[in-house]
Design brief:
By secondary structure, this protein is mainly β. The protein has 7 helices and 26 strands. It has a 9-stranded mixed beta sheet, covered by helices on one side. Strand 3 and strand 4 form a beta hairpin. Helix 2 runs antiparallel to helix 4.
Length: 451
Amino acid sequence: MISQFFVLSQRGDNIVFRDYRGDVQKGSAEIFFRKVKFWKEDGEEEAPPVFNVDGVNYFHVKVVGLLFVATTRTNVSPSLVLELLQRIARVVKDYLGVLNEDSIRKNFVLVYELLDEVVDFGYVQTTSTELLKSFIFNEPIVVDVARLQALGPAGLFMQGTKRMPGTAVTKSVVANEPAGRKREEIFVDIIEKISVTFSSSGYILTSEIDGTIQMKSYLSGNPEIRLALNDDLSIGRGGRSIYDYSGSSGSGAVILDDCNFHESVHLDSFDVDRTLSLVPPDGEFPVMNYRITQEFKPPFRINALIEQAGPLKAEVILKIRAEYASSITANTILVQMPLPTYTTRVSFELEPGAVGQVTDFKESNKRLEWGLKKIVGGSEHTLRAKLTFSQELHGNITKEAGPVSMNFTIPMYNASRLQVKYLQIAKKSKTFNPYRWVRYVTQTNSYVARI
């Protein structure tokens, strides 16, 4: 049961506000934003997703730069409310096509209509995009997406001439094409977030993949879909499935620690040929979530070296090598490294001919930053940094600096080798030939190398 729901911009502007029960003061949005902006408790950089101020519980999630917030005075399950906020964001995106401040402001009437159907007097009614269609009567006002920055994993597919069109990011589930006809297409995105920790000598200490198969369907008539995965896919340790399916567990096999499926997925033939059958509901939804803790080949190798170069000087050498095929390009790469607290100045030296690289020394938190626009597979990049200190070193400098962390995005690449072999749609007629897009993207959850 929630009392209020509101959406704030990054500047703190209140874009949407709905008071369901009237038991929380009207200025709660301002109280929340002030608390989040100036969060200093326990030395945390960011406010936790759930906190309490003067007897009011505040729950929030950040989605593409917007803060989705719920308040309540009752003792409700935090995970339930946080999941509700994520689902509201997804429903709004499904109906508006684009989720940002501009699209919400232009579609106030539609957004409030959705909110009134999703939550009634603080109680959740439904978050199903498909079920809401029979209650929603307003048409979305389409926002010009040409000038918008592509946000979120799916937006990455819009980059480059060889990429598939990213229209799934910007199409409403209820709006028709300009000519009045609906474009028949279906998008399947395999999105993986990887976590890797390297030792100082370059060995992998921990590795994990959190993956999801995301689907968005624009097929009329809701035909049945058949999605075939790797034949050598195994679930559970030792190649034994958690469903007691027998699958090959050879060296090249894809072994998932565990996974779960959307309620619309039928697993009747999954144990025989690793095929999922489903009738996709409207909107964007996860077909399957999975987790892998087996060691996998990391996309990047990081070598970090810091050496003393005098009583008040030291030198840092960072090397990054891309371990994937040359046909693949990573983008939006950011390398960060904490430096000793008494560092006063840093001078950088990039490799000759370096293009699209920026360096910075954040003096406030003594952090070195190295940004690369893109890294082509098989290439290697080096950064040298000369450090100047305000006091002499009195110990091992490697204990004062690091570890090196890295953030990146790699379209059309997945570390787990999980593949969609084919995407079959039950045809209704000979003329029915929809577009099928299967896309892959790998992002970092945590990518750290110790010094």
